[in-house]
Design brief:
Blueprint: H1 3-15, H2 18-25, H3 29-43, E1 48-51, E2 54-57, H4 59-84, E3 92-97, H5 102-115, E4 120-125, H6 128-136, E5 142-147, H7 149-154, E6 158-173, E7 183-184, E8 193-197, H8 200-206, E9 215-220, H9 223-231, E10 236-240, H10 241-246, H11 248-251, E11 256-261, E12 268-276, H12 283-317
Helix pairs in contact: 1-2, 1-4, 2-3, 5-12
Amino acid sequence: MNIEQLKYMVEIARTGSLKEAAENLHITLPALSQSIKNLEKELNISIFHRSRRGSVPTEEGHKLVEKANSVLQKLQEFMEEAEAYTNTMNGEMKIATYPGPMEILVDLISDIKREYPNIKASIYENSTEHIIEKVLEGEVDVGFITYTEKEEKKYRNLVFKKLLDGHMVVAVNKNSPLAQNKLITAEMLIDQPIVLYNDVYINEFMKGFSSLPFDILFTTNNVDTIRHTLENNTAINIGFDYAFKTDAGLSRSDKYVVINFASPHYKTYSFGYFYNANNGLSRILREFLKRIHITIIDNEEEAETAKGQKLSYRNSKL
């Protein structure tokens, strides 16, 4: 018996399927099946009832799965206790993100590297669907994305942690006639050249306007290109509001404004991070994510304060 077999037991019981458990654990189905058979032979009991409908723990199996869960939890506590005896942090952080929070993540990684020079860190930028794929495959430890309840239900072996509520917005040059509007309706997009960040959720959102003759000038994965088109009034941009709050290339320009959509196109999303439940989080990743929570909250409070000051100034001028 080994720790991996305990993990296998728990995952099969959770999913009710050898095939799904094998996919989540990133091992082949024959290897998983053989490992459980070897364990059952070693213990001389049947842990699972197998049928075309799936794999369900036997009466004895239910009790053993509970014990396995307890053992794995105690093992995690043991590792955390052992790590707490030293102030030295080691290990590696592999992080992927949607462009919006890139600057925040880079700054935090730099801070942690100064405190704990022995750690290794890598970070890369991509679209939501690619980030999910990389986390599932184990190539990335933590991904920062925008998501909905659909993804939480679809990827049951991923743990999602929300940082912010967000929504879709339209960014337009200050000299654009659209800049005078408090809300953007679907009809206002007609004949407007639009540039989009190439992301599955943005593309899905745009399907809501498919009946209108709107003009997608181009899609891109380069935020600087989007900023350039906005500053030169070449096109408007439709994207996530938090990108204009946190991305250095977008948030620091004063040549365009961000406007909310009118109902029914005011769609909300969650922005946060996720990781593979089967892999857990190392001590350095837990520390990093704790600092992310603090930083995001501080940034939101600063943004709300600045917004309030701007409104007060505007009202005093009226």
